[in-house]
Design goal:
Blueprint lengths: L1 E5 L3 H12 L4 E6 L3 H11 L2 E2 L3 H5 L6 E4 L7 H9 L3 E4 L7 H13 L4 E3 L7 H11 L6 E9 L4 H5 L14 H17 L2 E9 L11 E8 L4 E7 L11 E6 L2 E6 L2 E7 L5 H8 L19 H16 L7 H19 L5 E2 L1
Parallel strand pairs: 1-2, 1-4, 2-3, 4-5, 5-6, 7-10
Antiparallel strand pairs: 7-11, 8-9, 8-14, 9-10, 11-12, 12-13
Helix pairs in contact: 1-10, 4-5, 5-11, 6-8, 8-11
Length: 347
């Protein structure tokens, strides 16, 4: 299928790399706020540059649009793409409030196009193996879970763009921008949330409106209790991996980025030895933990391929609009709790 990209920054480049690597996708062109940046990106990837978003959306060759604008500016291009009858794949977060996400979902439904979010970390082999263990009830009663994102961003990172560190366009800080992938993984594994209470602070950066440190206590519908701690104020020379832990009365698994630190079940299965041989002991340095450029495009590629396959088969992609909404809903509830002195927020 034929793709167009709205956006011209770092994330748009990831999108271009991923599309170029696909077996079932072709990049037609790019349009962004800066024509010069858009042209440079188009020249690099051998595709067309458009004078405007409207020009890109008017091209009948383009079937799918990926939105790679800043977080709080996803609403308008997503709705415009839907009205132009283009399928929409939008970078995380789908938008910075659930109300805006609902507007995007409604526009896509009204115009009969597919809406997909980007949670590229869902598509690595380790998380799929983790999910299968949950679905096979290998943990027994899930009791204690955790999402831990102890990353570092220097002051220059927040000063590199006027939108960074603002509620309006970043939608939040360490949670909405950096931790959302790991929070999504936790929800993907453990299901719906019943309640949350939280505390946030800005401890190591200046001149930003949002948090660089957050801690939340989560109760899940299945009874499990969990902790989320997300930060961009945890310095490390190599960067700490983002971790997801799930423990139950029959087993425990700790995943660090794309590998396992712990894979331990009361009742072993034949595949456990292969998992331990192939998926353990990696990720000593965090993937993108200190440098947002230090990630690869493989997860994006698989995310995009899933969307194309789903469109061709007439089904919903695995990260559809409703799936992409869940992490934003939880993060917004964490912010609401923190602004109200840790008040318990019920779902």
């Amino acid at each position: 299928m034929k793709f167009g990209i709205i956006g011209s920054g770092m994330i748009a480049r990831f999108h271009a790399e991923a599309i170029n690597a696909m077996s079932n996708g072709t990049l037609v062109g790019v349009a962004g706020r800066s024509y010069e940046k858009s042209k440079a990106l188009a020249d690099e990837f051998g595709c067309q540059v458009y004078e405007s978003m409207d020009a890109l959306l008017s091209d009948p060759e383009i079937e799918i649009v990926t939105v790679a604008t800043v977080s709080g500016a996803h609403l308008d291009p997503c709705i415009a793409a839907a009205k132009a009858k283009k399928h929409v794949i939008c970078e995380k977060p789908l938008e910075v409030t659930t109300d805006r996400i609902d507007q995007i979902q409604a526009a896509c439904a009204e115009n009969g196009v597919t809406l997909a979010g980007i949670f590229n970390r869902r598509f690595y082999p380790a998380i799929q193996t983790f999910k299968k263990a949950v679905e096979a009830n290998r943990f027994g009663k899930i009791t204690m879970v955790e999402a831990s994102i102890k990353w570092w961003r220097d002051q220059a990172y927040y000063e590199s763009g006027a939108w960074r560190g603002t509620w309006e366009l970043d939608g939040g800080g360490a949670l909405m921008n950096q931790s959302i992938h790991t929070i999504d993984q936790l929800l993907y594994l453990c299901g719906d949330v019943k309640s949350v209470s939280a505390n946030i602070a800005c401890l190591a950066h200046e001149g930003i409106e949002v948090e660089d440190t957050a801690v939340a206590i989560v109760e899940f519908v299945n009874g499990a209790r969990g902790v989320i701690h997300g930060s961009t104020a945890c310095w490390s020379s190599t960067g700490h991996p983002a971790e997801v832990h799930v423990c139950g009365d029959q087993g425990s698994v700790f995943m660090a980025d794309t590998a396992f630190r712990v894979w331990d079940f009361k009742e072993s299965k034949p595949e456990d030895e292969q998992i331990k041989a192939e998926m353990m002991d990696g990720c000593a340095a965090g993937m993108g933990a200190n440098d947002p450029n230090a990630i690869d495009f493989l997860g994006h590629q698989k995310n995009f391929e899933d969307v194309v396959n789903s469109i061709q088969k007439g089904k919903q992609p695995s990260v559809n609009g409703e799936e992409a909404r869940k992490a934003v809903q939880l993060i917004c509830a964490i912010y609401e709790s923190a602004k109200n002195n840790g008040q318990r927020i019920e779902f």
